[in-house]
């Protein structure tokens, strides 16, 4: 909630400052600024009402706690988890069956740290709320690009009736598009909103395959007795999240070094290969993850999405692996 308020108030302050410095008429400033303030207040109220803290979620109330999971549903779950991790654990689950949707939401919650489980809404909504980690929308709800760009993270959309998973660009490109969106809306609100409501900016693609590390996790977890699954999942999540944190830190440093978001350029191929970042577990390229740039890990994981590339991701994270060290 604090991050949501700070980000939105910062954007509102920038917009008001721009209007005060460029528009001489007071009434015009009020008329142009009021819709954005009303939108913020409307989102804030709905956001607070929807963000009810989840009760402790036992494994048996999730898909990973079921005794039998059919292969088609297992494949769909794997694609959903893959996209969920690639979008920094942010997703919309669309569907009209309350029991089934909540089962999926609780399953994805297993991949969230406890402090982020307050950012989950189990209530059916017809309007997207930015910055929720997980939320339930009706299967007919339409989410436009301008709504998604109000979020601080990229978002994947999991559609249960059609069993499709869609996700937009990765974090780096999302930051650029988001900055351009707010620049455009600040200069010309009406034209900016219309341009980003067409749905052509984020270009969401369908995830057709499962990341090997996720597939292996499912293959190792489901045959285990129920009493052993939770410990295995906890160990797997800790290892994977540590590596994800390393990649996020790498991209953050790349953004800082590249200057303004609108002029973002990818780092050279050999950037950071001589750094002291080491990854001791096996999420990444098949050999010697520590010797490559963390960008290699991100490209390997993300390439298993829309186009189904076959990067060799070793994926034996489990109780036998050591915790990653960031030296």
From TrEMBL:
GO molecular function, one term: guanyl-nucleotide exchange factor activity
Signal peptide range: 1-28
Family annotation (Pfam families): C9orf72-like
Domain of life of the source: Eukaryota
Bias (Basic and acidic residues): 313-327
UniProt key word Signal: yes
Keywords: Signal
InterPro entries according to UniProt: C9orf72
GO terms under cellular component: autophagosome; endosome
Descriptive protein name: Uncharacterized protein
Source species of the chain: Eutreptiella gymnastica
Lineage of producing organism: Eukaryota, Discoba, Euglenozoa, Euglenida, Spirocuta
């Amino acid at each position: 909630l604090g991050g949501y308020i700070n980000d939105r108030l910062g954007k509102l302050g920038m917009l008001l400052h721009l209007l005060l410095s460029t528009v001489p008429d007071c009434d015009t400033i009020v008329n142009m600024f009021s819709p954005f303030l009303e939108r913020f207040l409307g989102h804030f109220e709905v956001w607070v009402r929807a963000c009810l803290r989840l009760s402790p979620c036992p494994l048996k109330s999730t898909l990973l706690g079921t005794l039998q999971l059919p292969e088609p549903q297992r494949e769909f779950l794997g694609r959903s988890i893959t996209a969920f991790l690639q979008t920094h654990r942010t997703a919309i689950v669309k569907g009209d069956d309350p029991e089934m949707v909540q089962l999926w939401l609780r399953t994805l919650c297993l991949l969230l740290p406890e402090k982020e489980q307050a950012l989950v809404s189990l209530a059916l909504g017809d309007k997207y709320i930015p910055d929720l980690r997980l939320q339930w929308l009706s299967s007919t709800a339409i989410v436009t690009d301008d709504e998604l760009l109000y979020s601080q993270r990229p978002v994947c959309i999991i559609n249960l009736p059609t069993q499709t998973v869609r996700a937009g660009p990765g974090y780096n490109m999302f930051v650029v598009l988001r900055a351009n969106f707010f620049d455009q809306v600040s200069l010309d609100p009406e034209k900016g909103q219309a341009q980003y409501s067409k749905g052509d900016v984020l270009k969401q693609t369908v995830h057709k395959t499962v990341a090997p590390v996720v597939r292996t996790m499912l293959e190792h977890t489901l045959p285990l007795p129920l009493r052993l699954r939770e410990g295995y999942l906890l160990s797997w999540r800790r290892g994977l999240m540590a590596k994800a944190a390393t990649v996020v830190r790498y991209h953050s440093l790349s953004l800082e070094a590249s200057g303004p978001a609108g002029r973002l350029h990818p780092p050279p191929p050999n950037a950071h290969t001589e750094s002291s970042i080491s990854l001791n577990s096996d999420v990444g390229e098949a050999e010697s993850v520590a010797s490559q740039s963390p960008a290699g890990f991100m490209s390997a994981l993300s390439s298993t999405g829309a186009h189904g590339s076959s990067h060799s991701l070793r994926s034996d994270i489990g109780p036998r692996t050591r915790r990653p060290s960031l030296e």
